[in-house]
Amino acid sequence: MLWVLFLLPFCLVFYGFALLHNACARRDRSDGWEERSVAESGDRAWLDAWRAGSTWLARQEVEDLTVQSDDGFVLHALLVPHIAPRATVLLFHGWRSSPELDFLCLLPFLHSLELQCILIDERAQGESEGQYMTFGARERLDVPVWTAYAAERFGRRHPLYLYGMSMGASAVLMASALHMNANVRGVIADCGFTTPREVVSAVLRNKTPLPAYFTVWLLNWYTRLFAGFSLDECSALDALRKTELPVLFIHGKADRFVPSYMTKQMYDACASGKALLLVEGAGHCRSWLTDRAGYEAALREFVEQHTWK
Questions:
Q1: Which run of H or E residues covers position 66?
Q2: Partner of 63 at 20 to 30 A CA spacing, among 8, 104, 279, 287?
């Protein structure tokens, strides 16, 4: 019995470090990682659309961009230009993902709307610096840095849109109440979550035999001590109660990773102009694949409504 009590603190330390590493630590991407991930999903429609998007992107004259975050990290993005853009959309990908994995299928459609795209590597992912992902806590502060760059590069009157997927959606929603350039016209949020604590709790309830409350408490203690952020320091709900930016909310009703009720809560809390698309039968980040026509119609209407306001 005594040896169990002796080993328990060491087990908790190991478990805490494992949680921190799996949830937040940097993941470098190997060549071809995105295509392998799509292929391993077994979704033939996704694979075909992804390869079509990859072929389309390979024909574009892209440009590497960098900015510096407020805490000193060099952040990377890829500009996909349009010969006569009527607006620019800044694309923020999800947790342990990439802009190519999350948005490649959509790029030809966005280009058809006369939008040029900035595909952003979020901190601690891809070619951007940083050691830890932060579930939107720090990513949200990088959003105004990118909008300031875009306004300086393309002009103070050039319309900008913020478009996020999963964690990227939450980052742009959390940033929506921050001071940004006036040419930011709207936010598009696909399968975002309300707060870091709530989404971690929802995921852990399906992933660990231990009580979610204890696991989240332990992870929060480790993130504060080693990664410099708290799971409680930011909330998309709080930001949306103050935002003046119009928001298009999108979520798949069959999402088993980020529950769709979170988007409904955020839609109800939003104090600005808003629209909601809930897609029957769509899983996490699969709404476009499940209802392509409805998804693209919602995007087109939102951009048309707000670009020339």
A1: strand 63-68
A2: 287
